Amino acid sequence: MSDQPWVAPGSGVAQPPAPPAPYAPPPPPGAGPGPAPAGHLPPPPGAPTAAPYARMDVRPGIIPLRPLALGDLYGAVLKAVRGNPGATIGLATLTSFAFLLPTTALGTWLASQSEITMLETGSSGASDTFPDGFGLGIVGMYLPYIGQLLSAILLAGFLAQVVGQAVLGRKVGMGGTWRATRSRVPALVGAVLVSMLAGVVVLGGLVGLPLAFVIAVGASDDGSIALAALLILGAALVAFLVLGYLSTAWAFATPAIVLERVGVVHALRRSMHLVGSPLKGPFWRVLGIRLLTGIIVGVAGSVITMPISFALMMVMMVTVADDPSGGNFFVLQTVTAGIAALITGALTTPFSAGIDALLYVDGRIRSEGLDVQLVQTAQGAAPPPWPVTTS
Length: 391
Hints:
This protein is an all-alpha fold. It has one domain. It has twelve helices and two strands. It has a two-stranded antiparallel ribbon. β1 (120-121) and β2 form a beta hairpin. α3 packs parallel to α10 (327-347), α5 (185-217) crosses α8 (264-275) and α9 packs antiparallel against α10 (327-347). The longest helix has 40 residues, at 283-322. It is globular.
């Protein structure tokens, strides 16, 4: 049988096959790359070479579907605010105003009933150390902060909902955000109450009991006084560390309540699982990012409210000089606190609450492979990991 290839009639003479490339022995161990095979030229210097694996970020929404870096977190929360201004800034403004208006008004009225002048009593002309109405003024000054705390509870839930939808690449409005989160408000309030109760128990147990013991035993000399001071200081330090751990370990409770639709106890346990312990898990990363965010938000809030506070302070100095009873002092302090709380609640709370929600998503990506489910959701091969909000 002939080794020549078959040639169709009329196609001409067949060309002989090309001879095989000569065999090149492998280079000895330790030698560099050998010469290019015959018929293959090396790529020119500077030409791009194909990597065996090139990582590509899938980004259906505001974050790439991979573990998030610090820049990813801050950039994503700004994108969420810009992409959903009504559900972030607008809803934050309305919520802050709804809570701060009555608390500031009530605080202003209480402050107006106070006087801070010292009252003379007795024939000796000694001054009374408890000014008339001083307690009402203090209560009135702090009522706006209570309103800010109540509004922050709702804002954290609103921002968790907005960020969850933005991760899926969806935009939401104020109405859709409210409809999706209003049923979660009791659980949000319950989580905050549990956190506050835990704080009271920790402070009472770690600081109150040693302080009561020191008062009961008494200190008669310098040595016992120093020992009592060290005991109270050590107890306060331990309480500070315990409260710092709890605030970090429960940082994801609000996103879990809103996005996973779970109860208070389940949400607190879920948060502790995702955050981990100080010895294992992303605990220190979550703590560091939340501390940095708190510093950024605090500085930004101070810069925003400083001109208003300065102007009201100047007015306060004039009015206090004209009012010997001093009632205007508490009134202006209360009004200043209310205005500052309204501005910071509307402009800075969405940022800090959004960071907590994104840290929750990042925690699930790192520990549960949430990015794989989000990729499948973007491809239409899996349901979303949390309910989708309608506008």
